[in-house]
Structure formats: structure tokens, C-alpha cells
Fold:
Amino acid sequence: MCGIVGYIGDKQAAPILLEGLSKLEYRGYDSAGLAVRDGDKKVKVVKSKGRLSGLAEKTNDGKSLKGNCGIGHTRWATHGEPSETNAHPHVADDGTVTAVHNGIIENYQELKEKLQRHDYNFYSQTDTEVVVKLIDYYYKKYQVGPIDALAKTMVRVRGSYALVVMFADYPGEIYVARKDSPMIIGVKDKECFVASDVPAILNYTRDVIYIDNLEMARLSTDGAVFYNLDGDVVPKESSHIDWDAKAAEKGGFEHFMMKEIYEQPKAIEDTINSALNDGKIDLEAMGLKDDIIKDISDITIVACGSAYHVGVAAQYVFEDIARIPVRVELASEFRYRNPILNEKGMVIVISQSGETADTLAALREAKEMGIRTLAIVNVVGSSIAREADNVFYTLAGPEISVATTKGYTTQLVASYLIAIQFAKVRGKIDDKQYDYYLSELKTLPEKINKIIDDKDRIQWFSAKFANAKDVFFIGRGIDYAICLEGSLKLKEISYVHSEAYAAGELKHGTISLIEDGTLVIGVITQPELYEKTVSNMLEVKSRGAYLMGLTSYGHYETEDTANFTVYVPKIDEHFSACLAVIPLQLLGYYFSVARGNDVDKPRNLAKSVTVE
Ligand code: G6P
Structure:
């Protein structure tokens, strides 16, 4: 989704804005632009379609745009095609207001007509130009300053926005307004930053202030002042972000995705350790006391994309070891379904970014119904983290590649830890089983390292099959959950069509797609389901499929069925998703590389989907 950076301070703004935007490239975009102001001179705007390098070229790496105050934007088109005209920043006709915007203004058509009746003309097809001109309209009509004009605009627009605005009459100041779109303010001596995402400003400051929904702020070299909709000042504290700026760099790897695959053992170890106190799982620190855990009637897991796949795997684990009913829902469906939730139930939302619009809306829906909410989130201070009743932070660090890897596996680990604790507190496992599960979890980092060490075989195999037309993943139980994620990893970055099927379901239609040489990947890590899935693999093999088996060491008989077999270390079967997904991440990666794709920035996708 779109990226925003803004700067006011004693340095030249344009190079800082360009660098900040480059850190947000991973979010996905199709055009970019800058607006920079030199003292009280007129704002200069430069925009360019395509990659950020075009904008850097046009501005001589920012050097030709002089000034200490500026805003920048990378656009992911929603209203209007990707073009220089539609790119942000947008400017009111006489230059009174210049702004960039993330989000969607739902009633922009109605507002546009209103403004047209007041003689405003429009040069672009964007909802952003409408909001810029609406600010201009209120600013001029009421003449009581930027905060008042912004507040009036906020009351009038429907939708979501992170707005960063410069007013011609207020040089040396940047104004921001927010509703439902991520935005943070970075502060430093005599400097202020604004960004849609932490990595954009990590190189400059790690002290941030969170702006809440329906709040505004004025940024200047004197710092940031926050306001509510009534124009009253809202006092705020700054927070320190632990992420290291280096964590958001490639560090010698060709792609962020491979770097992040390698970071999984450490991220998992950190996540496990963060939930332990004296060697035992402690959920009290995140607000889940034992009597609360005992009292919960059922769990609804709500998430999108890979986080949803975590939910599918977690459902098996929770139900099997904690014997608590769990259902898993796609956030985009949940919120429009008028869901029936048990008042003693708990809703767990899972989100790496903590900003996914549908997941956030689902969380709010559950909260409105008075249901306890727990969020498994990676980004500290994100909207979901701030709004959920309880938060379990995964310690994956910044994840840059659009295709999630360490985000997914740390979310899995978080849900395992919660499931084990629920099982123990609710008396479903004894101390011995508890210790066993915990010690198994602790073996994950070492075992993942072992799988990564063996990556050359996957690379070789991927090169051989990179031209495949279709790939099918089949498995049962937790193996089916692994298939969902493996299939998504493959298709999202290699653009090879792939589907995940519960192995027993294949016969009900999909098997008709199997032709001579079709690649079918059978995931068989669940001992009890091993033979059943192998039978399904044989069914497709006899119809011409080429079989890859993914199983645990020891199941060497897989080679009697599969044409190519990948082994992962043995682990308690409940946790196998966390190991078996690694070769599938590598498979997606190497398919993508072999096909010459942009691994970290796949077409049409965004890292954090902040619109519905
Ligand atoms: C996007 C990303 C996916 C991610 C999904 C949910 O589609 O490309 O990798 O799984 O959003 O994101 P979240 O931040 O809520 O985990």
C-alpha cells in the first residue's frame, strides 16, 4: 500500500524523504512524488510514474529540490490509474494546500460534486485531490487556521486516511491527520518526521509518538503538538523502538526474503523466550491470568493471508491439546457476516503489521460485542496492538519482503505457546506433557537451521520445475494448513498457479486438472494420517502427476511413492508446520528467482493491506 514520509528540521528534506521512501518500497507502489519547501518560498512538487529511481533521477537524488521541509509519497493506485498526474503530492489550485494521503475516501464523489459547485476543478482521478481541495475550501471559508480546516474536513469525509499536509501560509510546519491508516511521528532534537511505517525513519530516530484515530498534529522544529477533533491539545509521551536500523537492511543477502528466512531461528527463539518466566510460559504479563484462561468458552481466530493460515494450523493444535473449540475466519468475511460470538469466548486476531484493515475492523467488531480480544502482532504500537485487550508480540523484527516468512513462523510459535498454556491451565495436560511440549518447541531454531543448510536440493529442484504451469499441494490436518501457506508462497512470488487441497477432497473435482507431469506436492508429517495421504498421492501419480513428498526423517518409505522427497527433522507432530513450511518458503523463493521475478516486491501485492 502507499507509503508516506515527511520531514521538518535543519537538514535538506528531499534526500531524507527519498531515503525514507526507499525503505517503504517493499509496501508496493506504482508512482512516487515529493513536495519540498525552502523557507517561505513556494512549494516545489516533483512526481514520477514507476520506480523510485525515476524520482531520484529527476531530482538529482534530491539535491535539486532545496528546502528543510517536505513530504513524500509512494502510491499504490486505488482511484485512478498509475500515472504522474494521479501520483501524490496533490495541490490545491493556487497552492494554498499541498498533501499526500494513504487510505480511501469513500464519499469522494459526493464531495467532488460539492466542490465543483464551488468552482473547484480537478486534474486527477484521485480521491486525494478531492480531500486536498476540501481542506482548501474549509481553510479559506472559515479562516481559523490549519487545525480547524483539518478538523472540519475530518468530520466531513468518510473512509480511512493518513494525511500529511503543508499550508502555504505556514512555512516550516507540517500538519497531519489520521483515521484508520497507519502513521507514526518520529521526534529528535529540532527535527520531526512522519511516516506510514517504522523502517522509513529508523535511520534517523527511534523515538516515536503514536497519533491516534481522529487526531491531528502540528510538526515543526519545536516538536510535535497533538490535537483532538475539538482542537484541544492532547498530551503525548514518546516511545522508544527497539528495532535496529540494520535489521531493515539486506545485510549481504540478495533479497530480503532470503535474509528473513535465515532470521527465523533467532526470531523464534526470541519469541519463545519473551513468553517464558523462570522457564515456564507466562501469559499474565499480557493480561491473560489463569482464571481468565479457565473461563474462556471458545476461541475465534480472525486474520488475513498467511496469518489466516497460521490460524488454520493453530486450530488443530488448540483443539487437540487444549480441547477448546476453535473456529478460524477470514477477517474480510467475518466482519460482514453478522457473526454470533459467545460472550465468554475470546477472539484472537493475528497480524504481522498490526494494520491490516479487515483484521482491524474484525477486532473492533469483536470489541463492540464485548468479547475479549487477544492480538498476536509483530509491529509494536500498531493499530491492532493498541486496540486489542491483550497483546502477544512476536519478536520477528522488521519484515520487509512482501511474502512473509519469519512473520508467519513466529505467529505459529506464539499460538503454540498460548495453546500449551491453555492446555495446562485448563487441566488437559499434566506437568510432564507440558515440559515435553515446551522442550520440543525449543528445538525449533536448531532444526530450522538444519533445513536451511540443505537448501541446495530445493534450489536444484526449483530450477527444474520453474516453468510448471500448475502446482498442487495436498495434505491432511496440520499438513493441509502447511499446504495452504506453501501454495501461497509459491504463487505470490513466482506467479505459477498453485492450489492447496485437503488431500481427501481432491477427488471431488480438482483431480480432473492432473495431467502428465503436473507437479503435486504431498505434505506428510502427521504420522496418523501418513497412509491416507500417501493413498491420495498414488491416485494422482497414476494419473500422470510428478510427486514431491515432504515428510520427516524416518519416513524413508516415502521414496517408494514420491519421485523426489524432502525431509525435515522430526518434531512433535503438533509443531510440524513450523518446520515443513521452511522448504516450501525456499521453493517459492527459488521458483521466483529462476523465473527472474522481483522476489521481494511481487507484482500487484502490498506488504500491509490498509484498505478493505
Ligand atoms: C498481505 C501480505 C501477506 C500477509 C497479509 C496479512 O497480503 O502480503 O503476507 O499475510 O497481508 O498481513 P498481516 O500484516 O495482517 O499479517
